[in-house]
Amino acid sequence: MKTAKKTDIIGQELALFEEKFKLAVKSQAPLLDRIMQYIIRRKGKQLRPRFVILCAKMFGEVGDATYRAASLVELLHTATLVHDDVVDESLERRGFFSINALWKNKIAVLVGDYLLSKGLLLSLDNNDHKTLKILSDAVRKMSEGELLQIEKARKLNLKEDIYFEIIRNKTASLLASACAAGAWSTTFDEEITEKVRLFGEKVGIAFQIKDDLFDYGTDDIGKPTGNDIKEKKLTLPLIYTLNKVSSSEKRSMIYTIKNDNKDKVKVAALIKKVEDAGGIKYATEMMEQYRDEALEILNSFPNNEIRDELEKLVRYTTDRKY
Q1: Disulfide: which of 119, 195, 199, 298 matches 75 by Cβ 3.0-4.6 Å?
Q2: To 5 degrees, how large is the angle CA 291–CA 296–CA 300?
Q3: What are 134-165's pLDDT values in tens digits?
Q4: Residue 139 maps to which CATH number?
């Protein structure tokens, strides 16, 4: 599996990060500590901590400031996921029960608040003010992106520039901030940090477009799921198609999304229209463009094995099968 190699070069650092993260979320309250243990056990691919550590190690020796940056990223990210599950009334995340499914909404909201406060204190207690600023900016952007999506999605008439504004804020900002926080922890250089942030932003946008493409299925992804259509989400292949087809076709497609999004036959026909209109091809090209722009920035940094590992991680985000 592609992810196996990624622990090799920073295996020690990731193991140490795991230990430090466990300490960062520990609580004296038995219920809270039980929930924290549950969160730790069901953590995913650790993509963001990998980016933090690699972006730090590309420029210097990884130290406590890097581990705190990686912990802060995970604390804030986990807090937003817990709150998202409450807002979306989602009972599952990555095949596990969500916090709100097991402990109800009130406790889930308080758990998210607890994680946010632990992140703030972790930074403030160690005078990591710049790191906290970088990550707080990401949380602000994520909230703005989510609200913009809610505002625009009602009409199902999204322009491409608004779509990119939404995903730049909602999805890419956290990965961008993870990369920037990692770079800052070993360079304390504003110019390098901003350059690395931009690198992360482009990777994050490519990552989101890849997620969009999963809904349509291709030879290398598998069967189309149509989940985004069921949830009335406007993804890049669909936006491209809606802005290309005739007015009558557009009305018909929007009607399907609004009223027939649970009808498998009609959703399959809609996916076919997107494919025929070139929506999937266009989204793939845009994903590859952002990936290549990210790699161009990466290639301006010192050539070493860490940079090579980051390139593999970037390519993984667009080549992944899930």
Answers
A1: 119
A2: 145
A3: 999 999 999 999 888 888 777 777 789 999 99
A4: 1.10.600.10
